[in-house]
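Intended use. Records like the one below are meant for learning the mapping from a protein sequence to its folded structure. Do not use them to infer anything beyond what is encoded.
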Amino acid sequence: VQLQASGGGLVQAGGSLTLACVASERAASDYTMGWFRQAPGKEREFVAGINWSGSSTYYADSVNGRFTISRDNAKNTVYLQMNELTPEDTAVYFCAADSSYSGNYYLVTGYNHWGQGTLVTVSS
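Structure written out for the chain above:
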């Protein structure tokens, strides 16, 4: 499955952005999906995850309460609504899909399909 992320850009601290990730195959509606981010010089880290139906969501402590992950399986799309952005949220954001049903929502190794990334820059 191919994943295409979009929606990144430049925003001021305190602002909001919504990222979208479109999957190329309908089968992705059966997969756990996740968002990760990677800041310059840092390792890729988990941001948020969502199960196939959207009934369960998972967040990193650093974004819990500010970010919301959701999905529209009819559109093969997963979203990441980001509010109250801070400069520490600046990173390339990647969407990912787990077609192997690993169950490891928080781990980079828990996903076997990755999008190309979209850059989010938050200015102070």
